[in-house]
Each structure stands twice: as structure tokens, then as C-alpha cells.
Amino acid sequence: MNQKIKIKAAILEKTNRELVLKNIYHDSILSKNQILIKIQYTGICGSQLGEINGIKGKDNFLPHLLGHEATGIVKKVSKEIKDFKKNDKVILHWQKNSKNDSRNPIYYDERSKKINAGWVTTFNNYAVVSKNRVSHLPKKISMKEGVLFGCSLTTSYGSIFKDFKINLKKKNKILITGCGMIGQTIITLLNNSNKQIYALENNLKKIKFIKKNFKKINFLNRKKSVMKNYDYIYETTGNSNIIEQSYNSLSKKGKLVLIGVPKFNENVNINTLGINYGKRIVGSYGGAAVPKKDIIKILSYIKKNKVNLKKLYVGPFNFKKINLIINKMFNGQIITKPILRLW
To answer: Does 294 map to a domain?
Structure first.
């Protein structure tokens, strides 16, 4: 007999408003390729801040759940799933391991009103997740560190090594625009390589963080003239003016990776002649990551380069403080990945 599951969740009911904390329910019946997971830790990504602010325009799915990076423990799997079992420790990620999406889970509140959700949500202490958004947690990675593999590490690694595969043996000149969570992670992954690395940022806390942790980084800010002739630029701000400036700062055959997302009603103006002569632009969609395969590659890379993951997150914080943490992110007071504890 199936018994409905009581779930504590943070729900986006209206854009530009705080999330609503309340109990919701699921009937615990799993459809094909669905996994029920008890979430231990979740991260908050810039994408969620964008959703809350309605950066992509009208949200047609309100009210809905949020979050796309977490770690947890498998509690139940649909009958055809053989490669996950109860009590497995897992990473939840928004990138797909395969094309086989499950149905969207159905949640409802105490008044039986439907709460919409995608194939993975993590601002809820129990989540029904599509199998293709779940990977096993490596034994050498803690549950808190594992959250980073749900988005920022896979996106950053893919942006460097998949969107435009960089040659680490060549002494490239690199610019990272924006030193938020993705910018910090890109810098972390490239810091030990033989590169000329520049960072563009205005937030004083982020500047201090970069200077403290990355001694070799050449720091710029928007008030100074940005240098030219970069071989690679990783654009993480989504600011239209900075995107234009980045394109104009490329070398003749330089590559621009667009990671940040502009507002839905903003346009970018560039002269495309540079593309004819060899400049390249690519929009990164999660670094084209396939987490099941790429998590192993990232583990190998961070071990070889002695990457310290602990400096990339802060917390864990109590889940009840989620709106306070989000406000501190909006205000630039929290600059690294905030980790929330669901239990």
C-alpha cells in the first residue's frame, strides 16, 4: 500500500517575491524512470535567482518548485530501474545522462492544489527525480562537495574542455568576466595551468576572494579599460554590454564562451566581420556535460591539479533560512556556493 509523502518545500508562487515555505505531498507512486530521493544538501545557483526575478520572461508554470543541484539518498526506484537501489548516495543534476526523461512528478499542497515541478527539483527534502538527472556519488567526494558536481563544476569543466576544447599545453591568454560561482570555478580549474589569466569583476568581496585564493590572477574591473587579444573569454555575467566588450576584446581567432544569460528583452550588438576572419562564439548549455561520464573526468582532473573544492562553497545553512540566503546572494553578501541542509 502506498502512503503519501509529506514534503517540506520552498515554492516560487510569484516572480520577484520570496519563496513560500510550506508542506506539499506526493502519493509515492513512481512512474517509469522515476526515483524517490531523500535530499541531504542542495545548492543555490544563479539560475534560480534568475527564475525568481523572471529574467527569461513570463513564468507559465507558477507555482513551482526550484533547485537543480543536490546530493541525497535513494529511497525508492521504479520497477524497471536496475542501476540504482535503496540507500545509494547520489548527485542530482539538471544536465541529462540520456534522453529518456520520465514524466514530470505531481505534487500537491494541503488544499490539493497542484505544485508544478520539472524532472529535478532540490528545494524540497524529498524529490521525485527523472533517472537521467541522477548519478552515483563517488566514494571520495563528501555529500557537501557532491553538490558542486550538480551544476557549477560540470558546467565550468564542460565550458573549458567541451564547448571549445582548450589546449592546456599552449600559453593562452584568458579572460573570465564575472567572478560569481561559475567564474570562481573556471578560475579554480585553470589556476594551475600555464596561462595568462585575467578576471573582470566589481564586487569588492569577490575581488578580495579571488586575490586571496588565486595569487596568479591578473585583476581588472569595469572602470578600467579591458585589454585586447584574448584567446579565450568565458562570459558569466549575462550583461549585454560586457558581452559586446568581450567579443571586441578577442584576438583574431579568439573564442568567446557565453555562459551567463541576458534578460529576455535585451539584445547584443556586434560586428560579425570578426567571425568571418576567425573569431568564434558558442553559447554554453551546461558545458554540454553528461554528468555520468564527466564527473569521473572532473575527479581525475581535480586530483591531478590538487584542486581544493571546499573554498568554492559556504555552509551548510538551515533550509528554513533559504530566503535570507537568497537575499544575501542578491545583495552580493554571499559570493560562493551556498549549501543548504534539508534535514
So the answer is: no
